[in-house]
Amino acid sequence: MSRSPRTLLVAAAALAFAATPATASALPDFTELVAEQHRSVVNISTSREIRYGRADLPPGFDIPEFEDSPFGELFRKFFGDDAEPQIRDTASLGSGFIISPDGYILTNGHVVADADQILVRLHDRRQFEAELVGVDERSDVALLKVEAEGDLRPVTLGDPAELEVGEWVLAIGSPFGFDHSVTAGIVSAKGRSLPQDNYVPFIQTDVAINPGNSGGPLFNLDGDVVGINAQIFSRTGGFMGLSFAIPIDVAYDVAEQLRTKGEVTRGWLGVMIQEVTHELAQSFDMERAYGALVARVLPGGPAEKAGIEVGDVIVEFNGREVPSSSALPPMVGRTRVDQLARVTVVRDGRERTLRVRIGRLPDEDELRDYGSGGAPQAEPEDTAARPLGMELGPVDAETRERLGIGPGGALVTDPGDGPAARAGLRRGDVLVMMNSRPIAGVDDLRRRLAEVEPGRTVAFLVEREDGPQFLAIEIPESQ
Asked: What would the pLDDT profile of 386-419 be if each residue is shown by its tens digit?
């Protein structure tokens, strides 16, 4: 039986209307969660006194001449009429949450950085001056303590490992100073590594996070805190759909160390690593691209003592697969110092497991003091070879000193426009290893390249100003 278009249209509209309540009821209701948990969230305001004056001007600055210029009035406004320093107060806002009934509070380190005074305001508008127990700059976690009479309600901690991508999460904080604002979204990704934050496997969400939300809690639908809202990716300074939270297990471990020891220690392997690309995996005879490729072994470190070598690919740590290079630092960082760890590496196409006694992560100044270790003895050479389209030459003493490398290697004086340039080689790069074997010099490199079957991919370890890096180059059919 045929039906008129009008009948079909009415039927479709009825179906859509009937489906609407079911669709709406499938969305989460956050009202009970917010009513229960908002009492654990606090507003944090800080103040800092900044002193500045003529003493801060650069040496040789001609004050009288500048005061007589068109900018003289502006100069006197900011630097005063005499040598006495000027004083200006600055303030900032953030969020935090209570983790114990005796007044310990977690927040971000950057919320309270360099503060002269930290004020914590509770949900009932009571306000207390907080003591800064400690800050860990590497994780951007800070621990505060308030002496408050009456009931303080701590949060319940969840397990970030059980979070699933696509799961609903909710944030409570003080964006732009608006206390106890609630925003919701989903988990976009897990284990994100951000620049300068190698030891935090961030939770990425699309929850609206803005200035003032920093340090506030990220809840799952059970009302458990799974993270601290810490950073946003933005080109405007406001929310753009990319927010990052510190997993609560990482943050709580930091807080416990700050509370009990006053400092945070992390495990350390003593290697510099990079991602394993598809091309590099082929060159190492690996079936798939995963793990962390060792680009440098720091002398005297735990890895060197255990026998880990440049060119090894770390694929397991204490029985856990290393899916990417960014996954390794958090694994190592949370390992106790002096603990023996099992590290599985791929070397020469085969897996082998080494036992490494984990060291203590040095501070930034100590890390800069580490060199790059030795290399094979150089051979005398006089060549202008152009394998892979590049021009090579011997490595001069100035370059060795600047890059901190030993004898051997081949200097790229011109990458040309062939396979080497397309792979990313640059003028001034020094090739120090090929397929995990040291390069003694230009002649050695040219001889070994001539022995490689066309179509194969080889891996070069390159030393450059911004650190060592492996690059994969496919050998063309004709050189």
From this structure: 678 888 889 988 888 888 888 889 999 888 888 8
Q: Identify the DSSP state of 396.
A: P
Listed residue (132, 129, 126) closest to 108, CA to CA: 132
468: its two tokens: 């060592």
40, 92, 214, 326: the active-site residue? 214
Give the contacts of 342 (CB within 8 A, at least 6 positions apart): 316, 317, 318, 319, 353, 354, 355, 356
pLDDT of res. 443:
86
User: pLDDT by residue (tens digit) across 136-162?
Assistant: 999 999 999 999 887 899 999 999 999
User: Annotated catalytic residue: which of 45, 139, 140, 436?
Assistant: 140
Distance, in Å, from the CA atom of 383 to the CA atom of 397, rounded to the nearest integer, reads: 18
Under DSSP, is residue 34 helix (H, G, I), strand (E, B) or coil? helix
Q: How far apart are CA 272 and CA 22, in angstroms?
A: 53
Q: Indicate which residue of 38, 110, 123, 180 is catalytic.
A: 110
Pairwise CA distance, residues 293 & 364, whole Å? 22
| Pairing outcome for strands 267-268 and 131-136 | unpaired
Check the CA dihedral 158-164-168-169 and report its sign. Answer: positive
Q: Is the pLDDT of residue 229 over 60?
A: yes
How much is the pTM?
0.72
Q: Is 140 a catalytic residue?
A: yes
- For the question of residue 4 being annotated catalytic, the response is no
pLDDT band at 374 (very low <50, low <70, confident <90, very high): very low
Which H or E run contains 200?
A: strand 197-205
| 110 catalytic residue (yes or no) | yes
Q: Strands 313-317, 359-360: parallel, antiparallel or unpaired by DSSP?
A: unpaired
User: E-strand spans in 166-302?
Assistant: 168-173, 181-194, 197-205, 217-219, 224-232, 243-247, 267-268, 271-275, 292-297
Q: Report whether pLDDT(469) > 80.
A: yes
User: Containing H/E element for 247?
Assistant: strand 243-247
CB 280 within 8 A of CB 436: no
CB contact set of 475 (below 8 Å; sequence gap of 6+)? 388, 419, 449, 452, 453, 454, 455, 456, 457, 458
Whole-number pLDDT of residue 359: 95
